[in-house]
Fold this sequence. Notes:
Structural class: alpha/beta
Helix content: 25-40%
Order of helices and strands: EEEHEEHEHHEHHHHHHEEHH
Strand content: 15-25%
Shape: globular
Amino acid sequence: xxxxxxxxxxxxxxxxxxxxxxxxxxxxxxxxxxxxxxxxxxxxxxxxxxxxxxxxxxxxxxxxxxxxxxxxxxxxxxxxxxxxxxxxxxxxxxxxxxxxxxxxxxxxxxxxxxxxxxxxxxxxxxxxxxxxxxxxxxxxxxxxxxxxxxxxxxxxxxxxxxxxxxxxxxxxxxxxxxxxxxxxxxxxxxxxxxxxxxxxxxxxxxxxxxxxxxxxxxxxxxxxxxxxxxxxxxxxxxxxxxxxxxxxxxxxxxxxxxxxxxxxxxxxxxxxxxxxxxxxxxxxx
Length: 285
């Protein structure tokens, strides 16, 4: 099993974030790995092995996952996406002897939440690149859904994504909420995926409850000035490939890469994911 050569705690509002360092601590290339639901940072172990000493690798457990401690986990607002954005900057600021910009790679809910710090005016100075895998911006989804809702020819696309997102609505039903995480994981037994920790599964539900409906109803306009690569696994059972449409409206420097894989592409194809991340990070050198 991959072991970090350093670990520490980064403090953010209402949370103590568990941070882990791998790779070459002297490298001029620093990458930040942000996991999704229901994972923790260990889902990146195969990818970290594939990166090896080609970069300095920082990973952390986000709220609801792993060893990160949330002060008031019973409060939905503790998992608000605005707090998650603060967490990202707290982690970056905690990196000792940081050299140059950080190259972010995020999957699933890690990617959903990373679009929020990318909106921040600091993003263009802090981040050299952003690689997003299977995690669209909620603000983009809101704006796109509204446009598609006005065009009957687009209704099948909207309905298709609603069907793929059945588990999200289940998370919001109090009686069903405790059972849906298990159904979520079991719904696709053919998907190569890391083993799901039951505690991560239950705690991470708050990410959806605190953000999806609220930001789908109202939120700031999407924005990202960081060079961005969106990786689209064509066999993703949770997200329709056409969600990437119109992202270029608000990401001026956008590249889209389609891969023949399922949802947990960074886990099932760690070598490919490592190469894609480092190739994209190398663009600014």
